[in-house]
Amino acid sequence: MSPTKTYVTVLTTDHYLPGVLALQQSLLNVDAKYPLLVVASETLEAATLMTLEKLGMQVCVVSALAYHDDVIERMTQDAWPIEVIHSATKLKILSLVDYEKIVYLDSDMIVRANIDDLFDRPHASAVWDWCGQSRMARHQGLNSGLLVIEPNISEYHNALALMDAQVGYDQDVFRALWPHWMDSPHLQLEPTLNVFVMGIEDLIKMRFLAFKDIQVLHYVGNPKPFQIRNFDLSKTLEFLNYLYWEYVNQAYLRLK
Length: 256
Ligand SMILES: [Mn+2]
What we know:
- Pfam families: Glyco_transf_8 (PF01501).
- By secondary structure, this protein is α/β, with parallel strands linked by helices.
- The chain has one domain: Alpha-Beta Complex (Spore Coat Polysaccharide Biosynthesis Protein SpsA, Chain A).
- It has eight helices and nine strands.
- It has helices at residues 17-29, 46-54, 69-77, 82-85, 153-164, 170-177, 200-205, 236-255; strands at residues 5-11, 36-41, 58-62, 101-105, 109-111, 125-128, 142-149, 195-196, 216-218.
- The strands form two sheets. A six-stranded mixed β-sheet has the order 3-2-1-4-7-6, with helices on both faces. It has a three-stranded mixed β-sheet with strand order 5-9-8.
- The longest helix has 20 residues, at 236-255.
- The chain starts with a strand and ends with a helix.
- It binds manganese (II) ion (MN).
């Protein structure tokens, strides 16, 4: 029997491989009940795909999606990081109709507690997009780093149409696809399921959350922790970057 539920992430550039390794390791460490499926761009090197398979990940190779040239130009002018410019392929997760339900996780996330219960949450569940100190003020909608999805082809085509209509990058597309999300408390997941590492000190100081309650850490922004090798462990963010490497190293050990 093929699995009908799976965790999913997307890999479009080879240098993000350590991110996927850390994510899978973090799921293994909390005894996740479901495997990790990697939606991989066909442009990836064979060695990258082999590493994923060797570590027991399912790999689904897809042709890459790209935003309209004007959207790419706008993002380039606004100095968006390259992974956001290449994030269109993420919309493919809506087309994974072999699965009745998926939990999508960004490849810059670490799972700190078992989150299998998310598979019982409804389609289009996500966490509010918060931003560090302004966390007390909600942003305009969901953050697309963690999504609960029941794949559906017609919704996938709607997402592609929104992409072609240049509504923005993937997060803007998901917000436009699910306009009811803002007024649907049952789709709005606990903030501990998508905690941005920057600004984490303020959240803890304000007692908005305790570190032990964090279920998913989200390493938003640049550089990514797997691009950093020197740490001043007296600084919170650098400590969290160091913590990230523990997962990467643990995964590499399994390759030996
Ligand atoms: Mn992310």
